[in-house]
């Protein structure tokens, strides 16, 4: 029965599509092909009229948008037009636009794009509208939009056909407008702090700077294999060596990993590096940046995600990884002296580890298993084990640990920062340890970058650096459930040989 119903619906849709194509053919035969129109001068948008009605009343305006509703009532009709700023109603009367133009208006379909010229007024019911004197068809819609009252609800289709999602779901449009404002606010803050925005290569011979598996490709012109970058770090540090003391980059990075609500293989990362500071300076910068962006974009430093309130106005908590594990797992890692003790504790607490994992790796696994989910309010988790931090300065008083923090909110890692390692001899040893892990089968381990080592030998000043997950920041500040909700075109499995 359901299959038969679906077949009937498809037949109805095909018939409606045919009607639209017939209308287009008729216009073209009459020499009125809408696709030949090259421009339309727009003087304002829907929101401009609604937000400034007292100043706009009685004035002539020209706006353009998509027909979303249409009510035909004899000699006068109403339609609803959607532009980037929102919807506005238009009153279209035969006596105002002319008899032939009114006939053409009645033939318009939902989804057609039109230009409207007319006077701003309020209807008897008090709705701000435009009394049209001229309606121009600018583009003919040949497809059928989803049913107007329910919008586009198929999640998979929303991601595959984002253009329809933006038309039918105002909340999706608002999310991406807000994302743009978040990025602008981040840039304004950093520019005001004296940082330079730069661009570094996406196509690299050595994909380092993070623990991730890269995508690989081949460059025909050089007959050489390349990788897509997994991080922005190593090139930005080269710029610190070159004397650019404060640099940042916002760009796409690529990690050959799975898809879930917080991971997409292509995502937006921001990294920044500041000479003559350390990870404490990066904590201060992170706290101030998040407050600035929330206040500027949302108008408040208190945000709500999935019903949970988070306060960016209070000082962010600072806790070491050892203290976090002690607090949430009840284990004092200061008392764990050997690898065997660490492994025994892991078995006892059902924490899975691999043979290659050292004591510090197992501490990190305990943190992930017991502590992360509790870090809802803004929290800096500091002083990671050296085994998981190959590019970070050791703590002078305890060289088994490094000057690193991860920033958490809502149980998510939001940023990762270091007092950057600038000792080329130590860095070479760290790369060597990574090469050994690679040989043992760790596909996320780094390889030695000789040019980066050469840069360190030239001399890099003491430096603080941090990487921010821009997409997760946007998820939190827009209360979006999944990373795909804040990526205009997320990665999708192709259907039938092509993305549909």
Structural class: alpha+beta
Report the count of strand segments: 20
Beta-strand percent range? 25-35%
Alpha-carbon Rg, integer: 29 Å
Kindly report the name of the CATH homologous superfamily of the largest domain: Bira Bifunctional Protein, Domain 2
What percent of residues adopt helix (DSSP H or I)? 25-40%
Structure description:
With 500 residues, the protein is an alpha+beta fold. It has two domains: 135 residues, OB fold (Dihydrolipoamide Acetyltransferase, E2P), CATH 2.40.50; 258 residues, Bira Bifunctional Protein, Domain 2 (BirA Bifunctional Protein, domain 2), CATH 3.30.930.10. 36% of the residues lie in helices and 26% in strands. The strands form five sheets. An eight-stranded mixed sheet has the order 6-10-11-20-19-18-15-14, with helices on both faces. A five-stranded mixed beta barrel has the order 1-2-3-5-4. A three-stranded antiparallel sheet has the order 7-9-8, with no helix packed on it. β16 and β17 form a beta hairpin. The longest helix has 28 residues. The chain is elongated and about 90 Å long. The two termini are 27 Å apart. The mean pLDDT is 94.
